[in-house]
TrEMBL record:
Protein origin, superkingdom: Bacteria
UniProt KW keywords: Metal-binding, Oxidoreductase
Domain Plastocyanin-like per the UniProt entry, residue ranges: 10-70, 340-442
Family membership: Belongs to the multicopper oxidase family.
Species whose genome carries this gene: Amycolatopsis thermoflava
Protein name per the record: Multicopper oxidase CueO
Keyword presence, Cytoplasm: no
Keyword Phosphoprotein: no
Membrane-spanning residues: none
Enzyme Commission number, as recorded: 1.16.3.4
Amino acid sequence: RYEITQREASAEILPGLRTPLWTYEGTFPGPTIESRRGHPVTVTHRNELPVPTVVHLHGGRTPADSDGYPTDLVLPRSTMHTGHAMHDPRAVVTELTRDYTFPLDQRPALLWYHDHRMDYTAPAIWRGLAGLHIVRDDAEESLGLPAGSRELPLMIADRAFAADGSLIYPALPDRPGVTEEYLAGVLGDVILVNGAPWPVHEVDAARYRLRVLNASNARHYELEAVTDNGRRLDLVQVGADQGLLAAPVTHSALPVAPAERYDVIVDFAGVPVGGRVLIRNRLGVGRTRDVMAFRVVRRATDDSRIPGVLSADLPAWQRSDAARVREFAFRAGRTHGRHGWLIGGLPFDPARSDVVTELGDVEVWRLVADVHHPVHLHLAGFRVLSRGGRPPLPHDAGLKDTVSLRPGESVEIITRFDGYRGRYLFHCHNAEHEDMGMMANLEII
Ligand code: C2O
Ligand code: CU
Ligand code: CU
């Protein structure tokens, strides 16, 4: 049981300046919740922010009433007096506090929780409403992967700051989320890791488990680890969005789209004491090329290992298991006379039923993109079947809940809709695209 108060707070993110934030419990990121597989957790959220909020546990296998549907609002205290949000026709459920119950009957994984309010998700996350939730189990812990202080969750997010330290988020008064100049999404020129700009973390000359989350609204990364003398260290991937891979996959650089998680082992053993390893974004320019650095401060013993077999419980769905194949186009279009981002030609409408499927059905979805779209499915982890008509890429391995569609590409995924009945979502996780309509309903009956 946890209690989280959503409230305004400020933090010193840039030296000597205070940044006003919207927070979970006064910090950005919010408190990290650690739970055990199959041990249900209830989180009571109290909203003391000036706006309605909705909490979604990204990657959670969660009953629909706790999944954070965009109109299941937790009202701010002040609206009880003014009554404004009470007259919002889209406000289906409205409360001042809300209990979110997570059964967590799922593979151990790095999940994250964030705001999901209709039309306003992107600015809410930007202002600080995001936190980590790690699910663990005995089987994973017995593998011998680096643990304790050698396991580091890294929430990577870019932000833009004004001279006084406040966050800059572009918005027009007549439009909830973003302006047409920001069709590609909102980028910042400061890279934060766990809320700190370009941090330097001291490490032993040993293996570390880096649990990377791209919590940026729109920025893509292609991460590499480079030593002072220009040597690239291997990134040994052991897990994806939804937990451990079957076997490790070694990358020299790793693309990470918004909302994706990658669990990677980096070995600092070959780095001399005093040496540094830069984590860089090959897609960045200027200072957004740098993400963070590790400084090796001591020699140390290392009894961690990377087993050749990591997990044996990955679903092995075959194309022939699929009850049906659906196709969705993720494309720009016009909606209500403005530019928007659409799925199958339509902007999100909570009243419309887009996909209805039966509990237990296996489906193949063909996702087609115009520009880059990281597509996320609630509730059901999936596997990537093909990319651009070819076999999946090495970083597509494992069980995922977000897949990066590259410009012009079509990607096939396969999943089984099991766990719970009810109304869920799928959407682009470029948070601005999501707010501009690129979201649809998924109903499991
Ligand atoms: Cu991370 Cu529907 O969201
Ligand atoms: Cu989600
Ligand atoms: Cu998109």
